Amino acid sequence: MNRKRIYQSFKFICPWAFLGLVIALFSSCTTLSIVTEILSGRDRDREIALQPVHWQERGPLRYTSGRIENPPLSFWAVAIDLDSPGLRVVVGPEPLEYGIVPSIRVSTFAKRYGCFAAINANPFDRVSNREGEPTRVIGIAIHEGQILSNPIPRYWALLIFKDGTARIVPQNSLLLPDRTPDYQFLDSVRYAVGGFFPVLRDGIPLAGRGTRYPRSAVGVSQDGKILYLLAINGRLLDSIGTTELETGQLLSTLGAWEGILLDGGGSTSLVIQQTDGTYKILNHPVQEMDLDFERAVATCIGFRITGAW
What we know:
Layout: H1 3-9, H2 15-25, H3 29-40, E1 56-58, E2 61-68, E3 73-81, E4 87-92, E5 100-102, H4 106-112, E6 117-120, E7 134-136, E8 141-143, E9 146-149, E10 156-161, E11 166-170, H5 183-186, E12 189-194, E13 198-201, E14 204-205, E15 215-220, E16 226-232, H6 244-254, E17 258-261, E18 270-273, E19 279-281, E20 286-287, E21 290-291, E22 300-305
Antiparallel strand pairs: 1-2, 2-3, 3-16, 4-22, 5-7, 6-18, 6-22, 8-9, 8-12, 10-11, 10-12, 13-14, 13-17, 15-16, 15-17, 18-19, 20-21
C-alpha cells in the first residue's frame, strides 16, 4: 500500500485505532517515542542532525532534498544567486485592486510567468480550493517597485533592493509613526513579500512556537546575495513537520544567515521547472486530509531568466 492510500485511510479511523496503526507501522523505538509525544501534546523542539548538504547545480539554480530520522522529516530547498545574469524576480499575481489578488496555485503561477522556481509567500485572509477568487493579501508585497499591499506591523518580510541584495526586516520598520508606509525607504525596494515571524537571526535559530506544521520559509545569506527557499513536509507519518526553532536550524544548515516563515500548512508548495520544461511540486502539499492537493494561495515569489540558461 502506498503512502497516499495509507494517509487517506486515516480519515476513517478512530483515534485509538489510529494510534494502534502508528505503533504497527513504526518499529523504530525512537520514531514511536516521537509520535507518542506528538499525539499526547508533549512534543518539544529537537536538535536537527543533518548530514552535509549535496547541492545539484542547474544554471542559476541549486537544489537539494533531505531526510531526517529524529524527528522524521523530509524537505526540499532551492538556492538562488541574485547576481545571476538575466535573473528576474516575479511577485504576484497581478492584483485585482490594492491589497486584493486572485487566488492562484504556485504551479500555475510558475507556468504563467515562466519561472524556474517559485514558492508561496504571504499569508492571506481566506482559504480557497479554487483559483481566481479574490483574496486579501496580509503584509507587504512589492513587484518591480509597485506596492501591492501594505505592511502589517506584527510580521516580518523579505525585501530585495534595487542594488540586487536582499534583507529580512520587521514590517513595522516599513511604516512611519502614523502607520502609513514609508514610501521614501520603500523607493529603494524592488521586490518584497511578507511572511510571519523570524526563525533565524544573525545565524542563530530562534525558539518560537513548538507546534509542528508543513513549512514554507525563505532565508538570506550573510552578504544578502543568496536566497534559500525551503519547503518541509508535514502531517505525514514519515514527515511530521517542524517547529519554528527546527525550521531555523534547517535554514542555517543550508547556508542562510537570516530567515522567516512564509505561509505554511496546507499552503506550502515549492515548484521548479524540470529540464524538459515541465513543472514539478517538490514537496507533498496536504490540504486538510487530502495528500498532494495543491491549495490556491495569495502571493507567490518566483524567479525567471531572460534568455537561454
